Structure formats: C-alpha cells, structure tokens
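> run fold VOC family protein
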Amino acid sequence: MSPTTDATDRIDPAARIGRVTLAVSDLDAVIPFYRDVVGLRVRERDDGRAVLGTDAVGGTGGAPDGEDLLVLDAAPDAGPRPPDAAGLFHTAFLFPSRGALGDALSRVRDAGERLTGASDHRVSEALYLRDPEGNGVELYRDRPREEWPEADGEVQMDTLPLDVDSLLADRAGDADDAGDAAPADTAVGHVHLEVTDLDAAEAFYVDAAGFDVRQRWESAALFVAAGGYHHHVGLNTWNRRTAPASGTGLVEFEVMVPDGDGLEAIRGRLVDAGVEVHDGSDGFLAVAPDDVRVRFASA
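> ok
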C-alpha cells in the first residue's frame, strides 16, 4: 500500500505524540518505576489513577507548568495482555541530550533495573527495559537531524551496538540518582505498536491520518512520522500477533495537532475511510486497527 502524496492529505508537520495511557493491575508497583527510573513526576494521584509528567520548564520545548506524559489507570480486574494480542511494543521517552540519557542510565542502574537492550539507531541512541507489568519502555536521545542518514526519501535507521559505558561517562550529572527528575524538556517521542496486519495499519496511520512513511524495514516493520521526524509511530509484526489488543497495557495514546482545522481534516479522512470516531470536547478518539485507541487533540 502506498501513501498519498497530496500535501492536503498529510498531517500537520508540527504534530507530535502527547500522553500515553496504560492500564495497570497495581498502581503502587508501577508508579515508582516511572518516577524513580524514567524520572517523571507524579502530577496527580488518586486511588484509581496517576498522571505523571515533567516539572515546569527550565529550558525550551515544553509547557511552562510542565506537561503530562503518562497516565496510569488502575485495572485490577483486566487481566494480563494475552500472548497473542496486539498492542504496545514500547513507549519511548525522548531526553533532550546525551547527558540526560546518561543520567537516565545511571538511574536505571541505581534502581537495580536490568536493560533488555541498548542500541545505536544512527538517528538516535536508545536504552530498552520493561516496567513491572512487562510494558516495553525506551529511553532515548536524538542525534542532530543533519546527521540522520537518508536515501530515496526515507530515513536509514539501523540497530547497532551502543557503548553504554561511554554513555554513562557522558552523563550530565545533575539528575543521576534514582528518584531524581528527568529534564523538563523530556517528552514522549514516539509510540511503537505490535500489529496483526501491516497493510491495515498503514491504511490508518498513513493514508487516513496522514503520517508520512519514513522507513520500511524488511516487510515486517513500518515507521511513520510528521514533519520529517524519524518516527512518531512504529508498527511491527515481528512477534506475529494474531488477536486485537486486550488486557492490561496500552489504553490509548494522543496525537497532538496544532490547530482545529488540521484536526478536522484528519477526522474527515478517517470518517471517509470508515474508521470508528468518537467526538470529544478537545478533539476525537479514533479506533485504529487491532482496537488500538488513538486520541487526536489540539495542542
């Protein structure tokens, strides 16, 4: 399936990922991971829900009062995600510098967490681990865009070994202990999903929602983005999932669009494509393939 090329059918280049919502069976077990290891702050908390994000911005690129990045909904009766179910591959937290990623690695080690991977993707450097309920997490930093390799209009990402000792040596050192806050400019850089059908996913995210294809990887993965980013949404069939998303794990994620006109254009394309859409006060919720919920909202 090929993406459309008419610029009026593309998502606004300033679109980005907003909050990610996860259903978890035990809030008290999961909150410390995202607070002490990732470095997020608990911004709201009650018996059934926790909202985590950043503190007020001391640099550039975020909201003056901080920003919500992750919502944890208590779902003690939901049951674990079935092994054949589609859903979250990982939530990727983007740090503003290599030093800040080094600090994150220091927090991982101080908290006694174990990395499941560490990769140089040519466009970024990334650390991988899992939260207490098995949800995939990526901690990464981007290289400058002028260093990203491209060919034939696509970014050329790869998976190469990452020198974690060098990364640790380059840590900024101002937030390197378990429980220290991540920088205010930390964001959710992308969401990576496991899907049952890559063509169906492309029809939703590219042909209807309007993201651009940034890389196809061995006919089993697709990376799409707005504004020339390497990817805002990753999609893969590596583990051959065969059932819709269910159980604990991903509830929904947000795509933030700068203005209402752009939001309405996306809604129109999704409706024309037969996608189930539910309107809300600040945007709309669309049901993507595999029953993944994507909330499009005005930034």
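Residues 16-298 form a domain with the 2,3-Dihydroxybiphenyl 1,2-Dioxygenase; domain 1 fold (CATH 3.10.180.10).
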